[in-house]
Write a structure and sequence with these properties.
The complex is a heterodimer of chains A (58) and B (158). By secondary structure, chain A is of the alpha+beta class. Chain A is built from three helices and two strands; from the N terminus they run αααββ. Chain A has a single domain, classed as Atp Synthase Epsilon Chain, Chain: I, CATH 1.10.1620. Chain A has a two-stranded antiparallel sheet with strand order 1-2. Chain B is an alpha+beta fold. In chain B, α3 runs antiparallel to α4. The chains are: A alpha+beta (58), B alpha+beta (158). Chain B: Keywords: Acetylation, ATP synthesis, CF(1), Hydrogen ion transport, Ion transport, Membrane, Mitochondrion, Mitochondrion inner membrane, Transit peptide, Transport.
């Protein structure tokens, strides 16, 4: 078993690190565009009785 | 050979036909896509070399059906016209089907000429210092992955 698996990581974690590094190693003209893909946005809105109560962004 | 003959008697005619069809396929339908770009979409190619956790291997038409998890490294695609394309993959999967079709799905993939060699070397140094300052097992494991990936990047950019 690989060391990272023993430390509790899975292949999704591995893949994320690897993809991130590849983006950082790109030539500068391509890098700017690639780094935009890094961000992920999640907006959660709680609804009660048909009305939005609270919105939080992650 | 005798064993093969007795084996074939056990197969239904349909299964036998399928085997023969696969056995004589001279081309493979190749699809290679990543989160950032589609490189091949059902194109016929001669050979594909992939780095995987079960070792690096080459895929030719008639390859036995296989599933493998990609290791960061260079995928070489030998096109029909004789050209070779080298693409660095971060991670992902490779699927080889019974009909000789091959799919590679990667999280991120770029032609090796788009990798900046000095940026890759910088990442390697950075991940090495990340390892020496790692406080727990998980941080240590993450740094080790980073080193492995940057080493592959440096090698590919050479």
């Amino acid at each position: 078993m690989s060391a990272w698996r023993q430390a509790g990581l899975n292949y999704i974690n591995y893949s994320k690190i690897s993809a991130k590094l590849l983006r950082q190693a790109l030539k500068s003209d391509l890098k700017a565009d690639a780094l935009k893909r890094e961000a992920s946005h999640l907006k959660v809105t709680k609804w009660e009785d048909g009305k939005p109560i609270k919105t939080s962004e992650y | 050979m005798a064993a093969m003959r007795s084996m074939s008697r056990l197969l239904t005619s349909r299964a036998l036909n399928t085997t023969i069809r696969r056995g004589y396929a001279e081309e493979m339908n190749f699809t290679f896509a990543a989160g950032n770009q589609v490189f091949y979409d059902g194109k016929s190619v001669k050979q594909v070399d992939v780095p995987s956790f079960s070792g690096s291997f080459g895929i030719l038409p008639k390859h036995v059906p296989t599933l493998a998890v990609l290791k960061p490294g260079v995928v070489s695609v030998y096109e029909e016209d004789g050209g070779v394309k080298k693409i660095f993959v971060s991670s992902g999967t490779v699927t080889i089907n019974e009909d000789s079709s091959v799919q590679i799905l990667a999280e991120e993939a770029h032609p090796i000429e788009n990798i900046d060699a000095s940026a890759a070397r910088e990442l390697l140094t950075k991940s090495q210092s990340q390892l020496s300052s790692a406080a727990n097992d998980q941080a240590k494991a993450e740094a080790e992955i980073a080193i492995e990936v940057s080493e592959a990047l440096v090698k590919a950019a050479e």
